[in-house]
Amino acid sequence: MGGTTADGSSADLMVDLIISLDGYASAEGWPGWWGLEGPEYLAWLAEEGEKGHTFLLGANTYRLMSRMSEEAEAQGPGFSEDEGAALTGLAAVPKVVFSSTLHAPLTWPNSELVTGDAVQAVAEMKRTRTAPLSTLGSLSLCRSLLTAGLVDRFRVVVFPVITGSTGRERIYDGYPDVKLEMVESRTFDGRLQLLEYVPTVLSGPPGSGPA
């Protein structure tokens, strides 16, 4: 999907989302992770954080996650030990923030600000970098990158809740049609389902024209 560096390698990009069963990213009045994160899932998050990904995020996610990370670092109330470790660990991870409203230098450690077009910037990162790239929240950014055909993997962790009355941030509104080839699945803590796919953006329903 992307170009390659001089040695023939390229940076893979993964869209990584958590969702309710009915496709929301969050719900009003519910705690983070809908209160259903467990030790197996949190341990997996910590392992993922050690794989050398560079995280891509927008301004709203940056503000939210940097604040939560700082609160966890200060051992603020409301975070379990495992949850706090997962949040504070994000400070050490390379992050690229796409925003026209934030200003450098960013206060969250290891955060690089990009003020230009995100799709063009990520396409260039895929051509010139080798470390894997992964989104962090940032629904509109994920949608733009997928629509542009830049996404190599599309991964969701489905939480077993339906938040029809309180759900916020519908994930798939505005998406193109996408064919998904499953490459991995896993269950955490007996209730959370990880699903990972190779996406192919379609020009229309199968059989209606070229993919």
TrEMBL record:
A Gene Ontology molecular function term of the record: 5-amino-6-(5-phosphoribosylamino)uracil reductase activity
UniProt xrefs under Pfam families: RibD_C
Domain of life of the native organism: Bacteria
SUPFAM superfamilies cross-referenced by the UniProt entry: Dihydrofolate reductase-like
Domain Bacterial bifunctional deaminase-reductase C-terminal: 13-193
InterPro entries referenced in this protein's UniProt entry, alphabetically: DHFR-like_dom_sf (IPR024072), RibDG_C (IPR002734), Riboflavin_Biosynth_HTPR (IPR050765)
Gene3D superfamilies associated with the record: Dihydrofolate Reductase, subunit A (3.40.430.10)
GO biological-process terms attached to the record: riboflavin biosynthetic process
PANTHER family associated with the record: BIFUNCTIONAL DEAMINASE-REDUCTASE DOMAIN PROTEIN (PTHR38011:SF2), DIHYDROFOLATE REDUCTASE FAMILY PROTEIN (AFU_ORTHOLOGUE AFUA_8G06820) (PTHR38011)
Official protein name in the record: Dihydrofolate reductase
